[in-house]
Amino acid sequence: MRFCILFAALACLLIFLPACKKKSNTATSANSPDRTIAPPALLMSRDAWPMPFWTAKAKVSLKHPKMNVSFNMSLRSEKDKNLWFSAQAFGLLEVARGLITSDSLLIWDKFNNRCMVGSLNQLEEFVPVSMGLSQLQYFLMGRIFWDSLNAGKEIPIQDSLLLRGQNGSLNFEAKVWNKFLLHTAMARESQSKSQVYIENQQFKPASQMLIPWKKVLQAKTINGNTEENSELEIEFSRFEFSNTAPDFTLNIPAGCQREVLK
After folding, report:
1. Does position 72 have pLDDT exceeding 80, yes or no?
2. In what helix (H) or strand (E) does residue 87 lie, and over which residues does it extend?
3. How many domains are there within the chain?
């Protein structure tokens, strides 16, 4: 099974995805802490967006044996249709901009003057679940981002639900609050023993909907006798739902040569 935790940081796609090895046994995660304290109950279904649009700002930090980077990210989202993003580094310098739709992915790497096109479905080469636009939006919103709760064994724990199961050589475990709020998720590749761990923290309401204002992804990648540990942190400073559509315009220079994302 192929994993890569960096799909969470959208602007990292253009920088880091080429470094993820397709069809390898590299995965990602760290051991999950056992926590049972749930946030205040807010019963809403996974699909219940209070409004059709949201905008957000976040700080993204990546710690990796070969790199240690931080940047700011702006996000604009329309339910099931669009996800626009911009990444700023070195102060206020925009280094990347992109637009993801239900069937396409376009990234303008301003730092290297590259324009990359593809499909979000290509991320299935790097992550252990189906990853379309809707799933990515649910992931960012701290909700279940795979298709069904029916996979694996369900174990009720107080007001939480512990899910455990196996998909091929992949073992997974997730803790869910109020049916759809994802607290933790862990996936481990049994052959390589590589693993990925996700934890959503600091649940607070945004337009009457609980959102995790901080996300931590920890990775352990094992290749032979070599082990690498990485951590990706996303911390929102703003998350607002709206009935008014934001600007999803993505102006790409006419001379920017387009490359197919591989």
Report:
1. yes
2. strand 82-89
3. 1
What is the amino acid identity at position 13? L
Q: Give me the domain span that covers residue 173.
A: 5-30+41-260
Element (H, E) at 26: none
Structure tokens at 229: 């540990």
Amino acid of residue 260? V
Report which residue type is found at 155.
I
| pTM for the model | 0.80
| Token pair listed for 133 | 């636009």
Pairing state between β 195-206 and 209-223: antiparallel
| Contact between 211 and 33 (Cβ < 8 Å) | no
4's enclosing H/E stretch is: none
Query: Tokens 């600091």 label which residue?
Result: 202
In a domain, 58, yes or no: yes
Average pLDDT over residues 165-172: 78
Residues with Cβ within 8 Å of residue 85, at least 6 apart in sequence: 10, 11, 73, 74, 75, 76, 96, 97, 98, 99, 100
